[in-house]
Specification:
The complex is a heterodimer of chains A (260) and B (325). Chain A has 260 residues and is mostly helical. In chain A, 75% of the residues lie in helices and 2% in strands. Chain A starts with a helix and ends with a helix. Chain B starts with a strand and ends with a helix. Classes of the chains: A mainly alpha (260), B alpha/beta (325).
């Protein structure tokens, strides 16, 4: 952990070397998703509600997935950009250092400009929580935190899985953006508005629904019966994350037996 | 200390053929050729040696270095270094080695050199007393004090290489792998780098394995030469052995007061001739150098005499030729 912070510090120093571009990027990053959010707002302004979901409920849904994604992109950017590390051969360098490859790849990039995006999601989160007639009890706060953390794990998992594939393909796989960017866009809205197969896919394959829609039902008081399953459903994110890590280890082994 | 036995390694390389049709076909089914990068490589290296690893481009030098530093896993063979098998105990093994890739940096591009060193200290968990001592020593002997605060991207190649070498030695490695450490350096920096490699080898007993295309590196540093070609180890011996193997030839260069005609001396061949200078090639097993000079001075008025051995470069070329690589 200490070492990771050191990595981050060095990267921070590097990025601030280019001050102007840093601030422009951070600003741009904060504004881009805002346009998406504006779209959401105007849609609800027109229709009032979508399949029984009010604007603020949808906004909460949007904020949570936005925050998870921003966190994943900030911390796990190294995996997102991993294919460059393989093509340039710099991965060799990581292998001759006495630390785990995961830690070193995480430490290879840190996207500070994404903090703008994070902030924007955070503001929407607090705002919608304020406007919703909710009593924020300790279990609900706990569930919200769990949702965000596990959501981040899912996105990070997808980044890691994609990065692992680049051990075979060398070039990056744009296909994976279907799952990251696409998944993010889908999960911004409550899953119940989609077709059944989409809902199934995002529940059982890439369990974004488990970190977003299902626990949100509990937070919003829309459940009946036992709540514990709803509360703990974000843990599916961890279940998703572990095989991704496993894939990574297979990838590294493959790399070392084939070379660059 | 380093022991390689029958290391084999082959790569699958996608075959590319010309033409649009072929390119489309390659998208679906690629044809592969197996390239044998290393074939039955075996050698031992003892502590404190400096070994020059040479061979033409693509001969397998870097692959061997990668196997020895734990980056690649060979198809078969045994490799024992410091009691470790590099690719099996990667993290504990690499603590004991330093690796410099001449063409690639290990420093963080946009921050001052000293920050990179600080991060390496944490990566290798170097105790602060050791770190401070090493930093002082390296700063002094590599003349780094003026550039430690400079971002790496602003350094010249020579300055950067000095920093790279320092960075690879901060954690007191017992073995140092240098992959083309002098590539692209000017004469001054080359000499500085060679000097330093020699010093750490002598004073700290660091075992050094270096690959290079610059035969002057070999001449200045290496007690021992390993030559590889097409994946096979072709020569393992000292520079002196190599010299004696390719004979007892000497190059005699003489300067003299103007003389109109070339002078022939028995037992020599004249390599070049001008009215003021001539170069002869001599086999000292046949004719001693002294007698040649005596004969020459009978006919012309000598001004200066130079006697040299065959340059290493040519010896290596001979060796390459002998093995047809």
């Amino acid at each position: 952990m200490h070492l990771y912070l050191k990595y981050v510090w060095i990267l921070f120093k590097s990025q601030t070397q280019y001050r102007l571009s840093f601030w422009m990027l951070a600003l741009g990053q904060a504004l881009t998703p805002l346009t998406v959010f504006a779209g959401l707002y105007f849609m609800f302004a027109q229709f009032g509600q979508v399949k029984g979901w009010s604007f603020y409920e949808a906004a909460l849904c949007y904020a949570i997935i936005g925050l998870s994604f921003a966190l994943a992109e900030t911390f796990a950017r190294g995996f997102d950009m991993f294919s460059t590390l393989v093509t340039s051969g710099d991965f060799d360098r990581l292998l001759v250092r006495p630390r785990s490859t995961i830690l070193q790849v995480l430490g290879s990039r840190f996207e500070f400009a994404r903090l703008g995006r994070m902030l924007q999601s955070l503001i929407v989160l607090i705002w919608s929580l304020n406007k919703l007639p909710l009593a924020l009890t300790a279990p609900k706060l706990f569930t919200l935190t769990l949702m965000i953390v596990c959501g981040m794990l899912i996105f990070t998992g997808i980044f890691i899985a994609t990065a692992s594939l680049s051990f075979w393909t060398i070039q990056g796989l744009e296909v994976a953006n279907v799952f990251t960017d696409g998944g993010r866009e889908m999960a911004k809205y409550p899953l119940s508005i989609y077709e059944k197969w989409v809902a199934y896919f995002f529940t059982f394959v890439i369990p974004l629904g488990c970190v977003n829609y299902l626990p949100l039902l509990y937070v919003l008081g829309r459940t009946s019966g036992s709540n514990i399953l709803y509360m703990l459903s974000p843990l599916a994110g961890i279940v998703f994350f572990l095989p991704c890590l496993f894939m990574w280890h297979i990838g590294v082994r493959h790399y070392r037996s084939t070379g660059s | 200390m380093i022991e390689l036995q029958g290391i084999n390694k082959s790569f699958k390389v996608a075959r590319r053929t010309a033409g649009f049709g072929q390119a489309v076909k390659a998208l679906f089914a690629r044809e592969h050729t197996i390239v044998e990068a290393l074939h039955n490589i075996s050698f031992d290296i003892s502590p404190g040696e400096i070994v020059g690893y040479i061979g033409p481009n693509g001969a397998g030098k870097s692959t061997t270095i990668k196997v020895m530093s734990g980056i690649l896993v060979p198809d078969s063979g045994i490799c024992q270094i410091l009691g470790y098998t590099p690719w099996q105990d990667r993290t504990s093994y690499v603590r004991n080695i330093g690796v410099v890739f001449g063409q690639r940096t290990q420093l963080w591009w946009d921050v001052p050199v000293i920050d990179s060193f600080g991060l390496l200290r944490d990566i290798y968990k170097i105790p602060s007393a050791v770190y401070r001592e090493n930093l002082t020593l390296l700063t002094e002997s590599l003349a780094l004090s003026d550039i430690l605060q400079t971002p790496v991207r602003q350094l010249s190649l020579g300055q950067r290489m000095r920093c790279e070498i320092a960075a690879s030695l901060l954690h007191n490695p017992q073995i140092l792998f240098l992959d083309e450490p002098t590539i692209g350096l000017d004469a001054n920096s080359k000499i500085a780098v060679r000097q330093f490699i020699k010093t750490i080898n002598k004073e700290r007993g660091v075992t050094v394995i270096l690959t290079t295309h610059d035969m002057n590196d070999i001449e200045a540093l290496a007690d021992r030469i390993l030559m590889i070609g097409k994946g096979t180890l072709l020569y393992d011996g000292t520079l002196v052995d190599l010299r004696s193997r390719f004979g007892s030839k000497r190059i005699v260069t003489i300067d003299y007061h103007e003389h109109a005609e070339p002078v022939d001396v028995e037992g020599t061949s004249c390599l070049s001739w001008t009215p003021e200078r001539a170069v002869y090639s001599v086999d000292i097993d046949d004719v001693p150098v002294a007698s040649i000079i005596a004969k020459l001075s009978e006919q012309i008025e000598l001004v200066d005499i130079g006697i040299g051995t065959t340059p290493v470069e040519e010896l290596i070329l001979e060796l390459y030729k002998e093995h047809q690589i």
